[in-house]
Amino acid sequence: MWTRLVAGAAAHDINNLAQGLSNLLALAAAPSATRESLDRYAALARDGLKDLRQLATHLRALANAQASAETQRLDLLAAEAVTELETPGDRSVDVSPLGGGPLVSGPGPALRLAIQALARYAVAASAPRARVTVTVSREGAAAVVVV
Looking at the predicted structure, is the pLDDT value of residue 103 above 60? Predict the structure, then answer.
């Protein structure tokens, strides 16, 4: 089930990037394109390619999710995921205080990616000047991340 969701989200992101790059090519080919416009289009294309490389890195982490399960603290994974997250200047993400968080078994990159995806979408959906909070806890035998 989750692989279908990830595949659908990846396809959506790839299509968005491809459409953006196609639009930039069309704009750059216009006879009325100025040097300043071409420079701006090139910068936007570089940003799109950077996003595509990041998506490939994320997909690779998910593809290797079964490779090497390690026991690690979930609160530390959450802190790393939030540290790697790029947030708009008017929003912030806080992680619950660290301190002996629950142990989980799984590949670190895939676990960080899952936490980061939740936080990224919460930030995107939040109001300007909002604070998104990520908490990690144990509920019975389950380790829980709440964004």
Answer: yes
